[in-house]
Amino acid sequence: VHISLVGSDHMRVSWITEDKHAPSVVEYGKIAGKYSRSATAEDTSYRYFFYSSGKIHHVKIGPLDADTTYYYRCGGDGSELSFKTPPSVLPITFAIV
């Protein structure tokens, strides 16, 4: 599973399944194990010579509250994962040591 920030208040959740019938759905919420919202999207796959990819899912979720932990699962029955959204005050400063 890969997540990426989309704009100031959305996340894109991406994952690949071998099951061509797996739904492209992400269920999410602010309480672990309780998914008050869901989002769906299109999926894709590709072929290159003799290779055929699995089903590639990209689902955009939101709008999301700043500085908040969200719990989510992919495909309707996946394991629970979590992420924390960035604070509303920008810019964010990083230090590399």
TrEMBL record:
GO MF annotation list: acid phosphatase activity; metal ion binding
Pfam families: Pur_ac_phosph_N
Keyword Oxidoreductase among record annotations: no
Domain Purple acid phosphatase N-terminal: 1-85
InterPro entries linked: PAPs-like, PAPs_N, Purple_acid_Pase-like_N
Alphabetical keyword list: Signal
Signal peptide from the UniProt entry: none
Protein name: Purple acid phosphatase N-terminal domain-containing protein
